[in-house]
Amino acid sequence: MGYRAKFEVWRGDSSGEGALQPFEVDVNEGEVVLDIVHRLQATQAGDLAVRWNCKAGKCGSCSAEVNGRPRLMCMTRMSTFDEHETVTITPLRTFPVIRDLVTDVDFNYVKAREIPSFAPPEDLAPGEYRMSQIDVERPQEFRKCIECYLCQNTCHAVRDHEENKEEFAGPRYLMRVSELDMHPLDVRDRKDAAQEDHGLGYCNITKCCTEVCPEHIKITDNALIPMKERVVDTKYDPLVWLGRKIFKREDLEARHATGRRSLDDAGPGNGSPLPADSIGPVGG
Amino acid sequence: MADEADGTAVSHHSYDVLVIGAGGAGLRAAIEARMRGKRVAILSKSLFGKAHTVMAEGGIAASMGNANPRDNWEVHYRDTMRGGKFLNNWRMAELHAKEAPQRVWELETYGALFDRTPEGKISQRNFGGHQFPRLAHVGDRTGLELIRTLQQKIVSLQQEDHARTGDYESDLKVFHEFTVTELFKDGDRIAGAFGYRRPTGEYLCFHAPAVVLATGGIGKSFKVTSNSWEYTGDGHALALRAGARLINMEFVQFHPTGMVWPPSVKGILVTESVRGDGGVLKNSEGERFMFRYIPDVFREQYATSEDEGDRWYDDADNNRRPPELLPRDEVARAINNEVKEGRGSPAGGVYLDIASRRTTEFIRKRLPSMYHQFKELADVDITAEPMEVGPTCHYVMGGVEVDPDTASTVVPGLFAAGEVAGGMHGSNRLGGNSLSDLLVFGCRAGAGAADYLDGLGTAPAVGNEAVDAALAEAEKPFSVRGEENAYTLHQELQQTMNDLVGIIRRADEMEMALKRLAELRDRIPRVGVTGGRAYNPGWHLAMDLRNMLMVSQCIAMAALERQESRGGHTRDDYPAMDENWRRELLNCSLADGPDGPEVQLNHQPQPAMRPDLFDLFELDELKKYYTGDELGGHRADRGM
Amino acid sequence: MTTTAHDPGAPSPDNPGRADIRARTLRRDRWWLAPLVNALGLATFVVYATIRSFWGSAYYVPEYHYLSPFYSPCFSASCVPGSSHFGAFLPAFPPWIPLAILSLPFLLGFRLTCYYYRKSYYRAFWMSPPACAVSEPHGKYTGETRFPLILQNAHRYFFYVAFLISLINTYDMVVAFQSDAPDGSSRFGIGLGNIILLANVIGLWLYTLSCHSCRHVTGGRLKHFSRHPVRYRIWTAISSLNTRHMLFAWITIGTLILTDLYIMLVASGTISDLRIVN
Q1: Considering only A142-146, A174-178, B6-10, B154-158, which range has the smallest mean pLDDT?
Q2: Which of A164, A201, B505, C23 has a 20 to 30 Å separation from C2 between CA atoms?
Q3: Which chain A residues are Cβ-neighbours of B119 within 8 angstroms?
């Protein structure tokens, strides 16, 4: 069943300089691109750098571009290629390269930190949270995200425009804003921030994020467009706009009260109670 | 020897607490230590948020009683002890059963979104070995929810620090893609750690009086495993080298259902939820063979006919559960036996069938990632055809011996939580008890480390010679004129453990394994690597191999010594469970040998259960595990 | 989206440390096909609709009451007798003003700001990007953050108007089931034109109701579906239509052209309507 396949793998270092290196390597039935990269490591290029973890499409580590298409290598089956075809593997284009197929994805961690965290109602104790299944289903779809950053890599707003990285959080993190805005118990208003702080306006809904998502999350239709519509509710609705002009002060104060909660009471708390011996009858 | 020019400069960093590992246990420990006011660094081998915890599918076991109000911590405690065949550390099992609900509810305050019951509470599902529906879950991606929630809580704490100090990382910093190669001590006490950044190969020395090990398991020592590359037993080996002990290393859980086809994905997990949600196991003759494999100790709790088993899904109170939901060790052995006796599937597994029992819609809703996994990796539509599955190395019950309440080891300042810690699960872990273990003992380890710091007198210091020695050890593979290839040695190690210390064990095979491991021990120092320090997987593997070898030796030695079958340890030559062995724990430590430190095996007594916990069981059940003289203290004897 | 000339093949100093891969894309599939087909399809529609809107004749078939959607509603005194279903209260228009001047700008706006068409024309005409992982030929990109593209946020207001126009189109479709009897009275009748009008109206409703703004205002804006069970059901139904919004967008381009073309041919006497009943 096996055959000998032709591969071209980009090899280079953190200067960005590098080139496609040709390989010939055995391919067996049922294998995926990552298997082949591992075979190259074990037999021909011991120091070929590749990032991977679970090899089951669950962790989102092995993102790369296969024949120019952003993919998870562990989920790209060799049977999708012609046996005579040369398979080209290159690192994600949008992020600085570390070595070979490994890129520096810290951009994403920086963006993650810029999104204000979940803000539950203050008077709700652990164990008292009540949410309906139909209310959690929408944000749950976004929480399927495995953070492979393929959407972040593919979105032309940053892929083709490095300068937009400052202003634009990227699909993954705009989806996170949307997730929190749809969270049944989140009390923070996130609509202005989505537009002003995270660059929702840069999205021109060309849907490449959705196209490359290995979890098949409908990022554009279910997260970004609804978020744009929610922004319209507060920012571009003439009635709301007029109301804001008139009642500007109260509005701001109200939002201040609910929105800034957890950031204001900064500093460490006292940790979790460890109530082992207070729950049930214990003792000799 | 540290030098800028040749890239071996070492940078120094000081923290209160170092958490090694960024899975569920590590992140929970870091959160706890930070919330108790400590400066914390998290050292993660992979990217932040990619830890192996994401692979957990089924759920988090916690007796919240949302699905069945009869559930409580006592029932959970009993299930856990039964699952572990009474070899569990009873105090850990008690703390775990009591605190799991609190730890799960806490996740909701961090933003977790579990599936809900009609009343809006956290939904709970059935799982092997659990008497009631107990697993809080999100479809079949609960581990991802857990890791993402904890990750986002870390970010939230960083935002609070940022609001105060202007720096997100002032008091809680994640060093991801970082491998720890050595722990430092000052006298008896932990003083810090040494390691390298995987992307660049830079060396870092951490000065910290408390270290929490949360490195997970050892699965990469086996060929067929559901574990990812990170699972090389780093924490186990670091603990050994620092002077701590490992217990229960002979108990390795083989998950009954891993994928068996195609070959390249062999071992990848098929969640137990498939069976919890109605999937059944069939052999090549179409028989639901599990009915033939119900062991005596479980006979009263499991259905004996297919009809009763099927009724249980709708009416659990009046029917007994189907035997597909026996603890994992039983199911794994049964599958192994079916295949051995020639009733296996073409690829050498058995059939797991949910397609003929549930609607397409139900399957896609309840098991989305399984659907996805089989569709994309095996081109199998699980709503239309059965899956082929077989046992895969999944979890090590053994690990670092810890104090249950504080997660501290015998080395002052060294803590361990999660899979790397031993004792909690005894000889076999129940599904769903892992995620709760991570949270309960992660939290306790963080609190334990914080308390330790509060009571610490003078801070320990890292010696310069120790740093130089650690650096020299890490640099070694570059200077060796390598005649050995790290990848080849790794494959040999995996093959050895898989074939000779696998799911069914025999004395002669394990002796052979120990011999081969001894040979590998001689060869591993001769591994040389090509290329530089920047993201060099050959070098990374060469460093990890030492750890895998050390834990493999522990497993093989302990497995050879324990002459009985119990939980995750099955001896062909000693097929029965022996109540005398229930009192014995085996521990591994390092002792000086002629060629450097060697693994040493010792016996230690299993601590006796506290009487009130002992009384939670019926005497008839205890008789199956305990010898006569131990049963004296039971309430039945006191006329209660 | 302002542009400056830019050679996508040249190494960019703005991209520190990225892998230096000069090719615009390494994709080998026919990624250019979809934008090309989109461009041709949209261009055909725009050209056809423009010509027909200014054509000013052959838009109404008096004996069967067929009115082209490009001329509905017809409020001007210039409209042919019978085509003003709601009265002709506007004066006569000069020939350079389309007779449906009150509806066409909104319909155009509705489609221009539509979340699907935006994707389609940004990719096909503006090449921003032409396809996923293919560089766009622009040096600078600001998306929809500033004028004029910030106006795309007005989509929902166009939706409201389009909803009303769909009602008008529906009325037009219904009255067309009345055909003139030989004695001059009205009677029920069905011809091929009715079926085409009906198909067009169904298509228009599917397109209009599956709109993302409609999905938002009916239920998507809610945080708690559980407190609004009726709106949740409406949202669920619209969400399932919404997944096919692209399909409906193209279907209605087809049915609009077909409807207008058929009516034009019948009205101009080029062909006669195929009658089924009366």
Answers
A1: B6-10
A2: C23
A3: 130
Task: Closest CB to A30: pick one of B118, B163, B264.
Answer: B264
> In what side-by-side order are the strands of the sheet with B584-593?
B421-422, B399-401, B246-247, B584-593, B596-605
Contact B119, B142 (CB under 8 A): no
Q: Could you tell me the pLDDT band of residue A272, with boundaries at 50, 70 and 90?
A: low
Does residue B275 have an active-site annotation?
yes
Among residues B275, B429, B444, B634, the one annotated as catalytic is B275
The total number of residues written for chain C in this structure: 278
Q: Taking CB atoms and an 8 Å limit, are B377 and A57 in contact across chains?
A: yes
Please judge whether B36 and A113 are an interchain contact, meaning their C-beta atoms are less than 8 angstroms apart. Answer: no
What integer pLDDT is reported at residue A280 of this predicted model? 35
| Three-state secondary-structure class, residue C181 | coil
Euclidean distance between CA atoms C44 and A110, whole angstroms: 45
Q: Which of residues 206-225 of A touch C (CB under 8 A)?
A: 206-208, 211-212, 218, 221, 225
- Closest residue in A to C133 (Cα) is A154
**What's the order of all strands across the beta sheet hosting B135-136?**
B60-61, B135-136, B124-125
Catalytic (active site) residue B255: yes
Chain A residue with minimum CA distance to B95: A276
Extract the residue ranges of chain B whose pLDDT is less than 70.
1-5, 482, 640
- What b/e readout covers B323-335, taking b as 16+ CB neighbours within 10 angstroms? bbbbbbbbbbbbb
In chain B, the N- to C-terminal Cα span, in Å, equals 70
Could you tell me the sign of the dihedral formed by the alpha carbons of B409, B413, B417, B421, in that order?
Answer: negative
Please spell the DSSP secondary structure of A155-206, one letter per residue: -HHHHS-GGGGTT---HHHHHHHHHHHH-TT-----HHHHHHTS-GGG----
Chains in touch with A (3+ beta-carbon pairs under 8 Å) read B, C
pLDDT the model gives residue A271 = 66
Residue A68, chain C, CB below 8 Å: the answer is yes
Cα gap B447→B419, rounded to integer Å:
18
In chain C, which stretches have pLDDT less than 70?
A: 1-14
Q: Would strands B387-396 and B252-259 be described as parallel, antiparallel, or unpaired?
A: antiparallel
Q: What is the pTM of this model?
A: 0.93
Interface contact A135-C224, CB threshold 8 A: yes
At C38-65, the pLDDT tens digits run 999 999 999 999 999 999 999 999 999 9
Q: Give A158: exposed, middle or buried? Use CB within 10 Å, 0-12, 13-18, 19+.
A: buried
Nearest residue to C76 (alpha-carbon basis) of C85, C86, C67, C88: C88
Neighbouring subunits of B (3+ Cβ pairs under 8 A): A
A68 neighbourhood in chain C, CB within 8 Å: 25-28, 133
Among candidate residues C160, C185, C137, the one with its CA nearest the CA of residue C24 = C137
Q: How many CB atoms are closer than 10 A to CB C169?
A: 25
Q: Is B333:B293 a contact under the CB 8 Å cutoff?
A: yes
Q: Which C residues, 83 through 142, put their C-beta within 8 Å of a C-beta on chain A?
A: 115, 118-119, 122-123, 128-129, 132-133, 135-136, 138, 140-142
Interface of C with A in 142-201 (CB under 8 A): 142-146, 149-150, 153-156
Q: What is the DSSP string of B327-364?
A: -HHHHHHHHHHHHHTT---TTSSEEEE-TTTS-HHHHH
Tell me the C-alpha distance between A183 and B111, whole Å: 8
pLDDT at residue A273, rounded to an integer: 62
- By Cβ distance, the residue of A15, A164, A221 closest to C242 is A221
Q: How far is CA C239 from the centre of its chain?
A: 19
Instruction: List phi, psi (to 5°) of B146.
Output: -65, -50
Say how far apart CA B208 and CA B42 lie, in whole Å: 12
From A157, A182, A225, residue closest to C141, measured CB to CB: A157
- Per the model's pLDDT, the better-predicted residue between B631 and A244 turns out to be B631
Whether residues C25 and A68 touch (CB distance < 8 A) is answered with: yes
